Every structure is written in C-alpha cells, then in structure tokens.
Amino acid sequence: MKVAVVGKGGSGKTTTSAVLARTFARSGRSTLALDCDSNPNLGISLGLGEAETERLVTVREAVDAGETEHAVSVDDLVDRFGVDAPDGVRLAVVSAIQNPEPGCP
Q1: The pTM of the whole model exceeds 0.90
Q2: CA pseudo-torsion sign 26, 48, 40, 30
Q3: Would you call 7 exposed, middle or buried from its count of C-beta atoms within 10 A (0-12, 13-18, 19+)?
Q4: How far apart are CA 70 and CA 20, in angstroms?
Q5: Dihedral of CA 92/54/83/24: which sign?
Q6: CA 22 to CA 12: how far, in whole Å?
C-alpha cells in the first residue's frame, strides 16, 4: 500500500503522516516514510528529535548541491539516506527521485 499526504500549508500534513506511519508500523506493516517537504520536520514528528532530523536535512542538501551522489534506486535511497525511527518506521528526507523504477516509490 502506498499513501501520500498532500494539502495546503499548515493543514497538518506532517502530523497526519507521522500518525499514519507509526500506526502502520505498530500494526506490523513494513513502513517507509519519505519527507519531501521543503521544510522537512517529519523526523521530529516521528520522535527522532531535532538533531537527527537536521542531519537528514543536511544530507538531502548535499545531494541537491551535487556534493553527494543521488541514489540509483529506491532500495539504495533507503539504505544510504534512511534512518530507523521509533515504532519501526524507516524515514528518508528526499527532494526528488531521479529515474524512479516503475510505480510510485
């Protein structure tokens, strides 16, 4: 199952995403959360804390600036740029997935 949370700024997308991700993970589902927001705070909402969330943002900025190579696949993205969050959620902060595999990552 793939779930995307979209909406107007300030409408609660990050909070809703965190609740859904943690609920899915707690029910035993393999859960990958991708924070694609221009102001990524999903790590904080998932319980990672400010320092780890900022570290993930810095990694994303390095990729955007060309200082770090893009991931070549979804699995590579999760392995290289993902972290384990509370309740079994895996989180990655991303800005774009270039040449994605067929289907929605």
Answers
A1: no
A2: negative
A3: exposed
A4: 27
A5: negative
A6: 16
- Domain chopping of the chain, boundaries: 32-93
**CA 8 to the chain's CA centroid:** 19
Per-residue pLDDT of the chain (105 residues; tens, 9 = 90+): 899 999 998 999 999 999 999 999 999 999 999 998 888 999 999 999 999 999 888 888 888 888 988 888 888 888 888 999 999 999 998 875 555 555 554
Contact 91, 83 (CB under 8 A): yes
SS (HEC) of 60-87: HHHHHCCCCCCCCCHHHHHHHHEEECHH
46: its two tokens: 């998932």
